[in-house]
Amino acid sequence: MIGKLTGRMDYRAADHVLIDVRGVGYIVYCSDRTLAALPGAGQMVSLYTDLVVREDLMQLFGFTSLVEKEWHRLLMSVQGVGAKVSLAILGALGPDGVSRAIALGDWAAVKAAKGVGPKTAQRIVLDLKDKAPSVMAMGGTVADAMDGPSGQVIEEPEPPVPAAATPPPAAPRASAQADALSALGNLGYGPSEAAAAVAEAAGENPEAETSDLIRAALKKLAPKG
User: Where is the composition biased (Pro residues) (predicted)?
Assistant: First the structure.
């Protein structure tokens, strides 16, 4: 499985790029939004990738962030959604827009993508709504994962957990609020406005899980009128 490519951009086409990795050229299909964010020919580029293998075809799809890659994988798991439709949705909304639309159940926003009908948009929201919070909390771009020109991915070791540590009863709710804050931060909301929305949502529903807090906070942050 090819999970990430780092190499020199050879050329850019309407729906794909050719990346030269030590003399081997990889054709990588990307959304319009991702294509627009990539550097010009001759420059170094790094993309997370997903390899799709069929009986008569092998295709690589490229993404600038793990969130975009995960949404592509999830979108393609929905009946009737192929790679072309998935990239159209990601190109129209971006990964953050997809996260927001699905978390809020806004199938009309999903339908705005080229080639997506109302039934498909509703099916996408229905099938993936419960998965939105975990994807929103992922964050991270290829640049975040790189350490200098070598392109080495840095894996932080997990801190040791004390054997006798027992969280207090309120910890799960505090954790849910922290996860909701992290997800809203990944969507571009400022710390103060995100904290206020999450606090208000938690005050209205103290037992709310992370997904419920995110949905409630997004509704409070949505433009009025």
Answer: 159-171
